[in-house]
């Protein structure tokens, strides 16, 4: 559904005003617009959850990824929930990421940049506006409740305040648990929230920074070039990502690169391919070739989750580990053939013992046992370990460029 965002009560900087007049997909149908404005005012004066210097530090780390000197591991829940924002859940996810990073660092001989889908991943894009009961769909705890009642599903602007508070608490856990070594990121979706958390940078005339997370990405459903989300990402000083589904054209990809990395800063832009295991080998190469020819140094990241989702006979949305491994292998094959860097992965996972994806000990009959996700199916620790082992094997196949531009295995 397309409609305009809620206009500001007061004057906004020109660029923001321009951004809000663009078509804005996937926004909540807030019933109480005066309350939306009041909440935005509260968020506008609240302390940022992350600082500009931290976002700059992440850009520098992502520049190393773009140069092939580090590997990016991003992961966490598809949808965080207020009820799930507990120390044990946050630590289970952070600890799983830490264990995976150790294996990948050893296999690749490179530092691993850890980026948690955490402390802000509270809004979800949806393909339908109503569910099977005719109720408005669940759009993430920042917007409405998962319970199938009209009251729960009515978008409530006060939930943006709860998302901010929950994210602040999660940030405390992230900082305490990891000594500041883990960055946080989420999909920039609800623009009432994201715009209210923009903060000026340290330099006059510098772009504003997002105070809501170190890294923000634009999802497959909101990446329209003329849309407000890409316009919003353009404004930011933070490193940003764009998900690229199987219908992405090379021309579109190069336009994202021009628009989102106008100053040609390595690490500023991460292109996240999520094409599905059947399409990646065909769709990704011309995109990589055209972007490489543009001269911009982006991070190439593979999300092997979102192009491989299907509904099991039990009615559960699920994914097969085997398909994820095939998409990851295809992603590495494409980059190795073209002489570009397979820079990182983006996974939905949890350290909790869930039964949401198939493979590594979980079959269709197990899905109903501990299917706990509020949105998409996540890897459990055992499945994430299987993916990590396969990734480690892919990283252990180093290549050097040959004079004829064909990669060949490096002699061991
Ligand atoms: C997600 O990352 O949860 C998501 C919705 O992904 P995509 O935009 O790639 O579908
Ligand atoms: Mn998801």
- Supply the CATH architecture: Alpha-Beta Barrel
Q: Structural class, from helix and strand content?
A: alpha/beta
CATH superfamily: Aldolase class I
Main beta sheet: 8 strands, parallel, barrel
Q: What would the CATH topology be?
A: TIM Barrel
CATH top level is Alpha Beta
Which band does the percent of strand residues land in?
5-15%
**Overall average residue pLDDT:** 93
The Cα radius of gyration reads 20 Å
The oligomerization state is: single chain
The distinct bound ligands, ions and cofactors come out as: phosphoenolpyruvate, manganese (II) ion
Helix content: 25-40%
Please provide the count of β strands: 16
Distance between the termini: 55 Å
Task: Going across the biggest sheet, name each strand in turn.
Answer: 3-4-5-8-9-10-11-14
Order of helices and strands: EHEHHEHEHHEHEEEHEHEHEEEHEHEE
Structure keywords:
412 residues; alpha/beta; TIM Barrel; 8-stranded parallel barrel; two-stranded antiparallel ribbon; 12 helices; 16 strands; 37% helix; disordered N terminus; disordered C terminus; binds phosphoenolpyruvate; binds manganese (II) ion
Summed up:
This protein has 412 residues and is of the alpha/beta class.
Molecular structure report:
It is a single chain. The chain is an alpha/beta fold and 412 residues long. It has one domain: TIM Barrel (Alpha-Beta Barrel), CATH 3.20.20. Helices cover 37% and strands 14% of the residues. The chain has twelve helices and 16 strands. The protein has helices at 14-20, 33-45, 52-66, 87-108, 150-153, 158-178, 191-196, 228-235, 250-260, 280-293, 321-338, 381-395, and strands at residues 2-3, 24-25, 71-76, 112-117, 182-187, 198-199, 209-210, 215-218, 240-244, 269-273, 299-302, 310-311, 317-318, 344-348, 399-401, 407-409. Strands 3-4-5-8-9-10-11-14 form an eight-stranded parallel β-barrel, surrounded by six helices. The longest helix has 22 residues, at 87-108. The radius of gyration is 20 Å and the shape is globular. Residues 1-5, 8-14 and 400-412 have low confidence and may be disordered. Bound molecules: phosphoenolpyruvate (PEP) and manganese (II) ion (MN).
């Amino acid at each position: 559904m397309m409609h305009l965002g809620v206009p500001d009560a007061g004057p906004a900087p020109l660029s923001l005003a321009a951004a809000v007049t663009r078509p804005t997909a996937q926004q909540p149908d807030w019933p109480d617009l005066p309350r939306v404005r009041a909440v935005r005012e509260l968020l506008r004066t609240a302390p940022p959850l992350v600082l500009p210097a931290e976002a700059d530090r992440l850009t520098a780390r992502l520049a190393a990824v773009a140069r092939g000197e580090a590997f990016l591991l991003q992961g966490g829940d598809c949808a965080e929930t207020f009820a799930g924002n507990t120390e044990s859940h946050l630590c289970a996810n952070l600890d799983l990421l830490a264990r995976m990073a150790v294996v990948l660092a050893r296999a690749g001989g490179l530092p691993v940049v850890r980026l948690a889908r955490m402390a802000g991943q509270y809004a979800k894009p949806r393909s339908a506006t109503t569910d099977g009961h005719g109720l408005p769909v669940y759009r993430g705890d920042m917007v409405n409740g998962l319970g199938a009642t009209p009251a729960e599903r009515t978008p409530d602007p006060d939930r943006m305040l709860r998302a901010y508070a929950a994210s602040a608490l999660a940030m405390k856990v992230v900082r305490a648990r990891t000594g500041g070594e883990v960055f946080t990121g989420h999909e920039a979706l609800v623009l009432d929230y994201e715009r209210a958390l923009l903060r000026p940078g340290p330099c006059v005339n510098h772009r504003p920074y997002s105070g809501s997370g170190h890294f923000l990405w634009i999802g497959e459903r909101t990446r329209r070039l003329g849309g407000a989300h890409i316009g919003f990402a353009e404004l930011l000083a933070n490193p940003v990502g764009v998900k690229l589904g199987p219908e992405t054209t090379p021309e579109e990809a190069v336009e994202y690169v021009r628009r989102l990395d106008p100053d040609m800063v390595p690490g500023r832009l991460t292109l996240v391919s999520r094409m599905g295991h059947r399409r990646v080998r065909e769709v990704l190469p011309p995109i990589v070739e055209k972007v490489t020819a543009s001269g911009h140094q982006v991070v190439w990241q593979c999300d092997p989750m979102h192009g491989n989702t299907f509904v099991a006979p039990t009615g559960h949305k699920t994914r097969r580990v085997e398909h994820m491994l095939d998409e990851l292998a295809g992603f590495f094959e494409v980059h190795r053939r073209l002489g570009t860097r397979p820079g990182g992965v983006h996974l939905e996972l949890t350290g909790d013992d869930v039964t949401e994806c198939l493979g590594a000990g979980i079959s269709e009959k197990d899905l109903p046992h501990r299917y706990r996700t509020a949105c998409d199916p996540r890897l459990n620790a055992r499945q994430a370990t299987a993916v990590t082992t396969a990734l480690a094997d892919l990283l252990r196949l180093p290549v050097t460029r040959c004079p004829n531009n064909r990669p060949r295995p490096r002699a061991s």
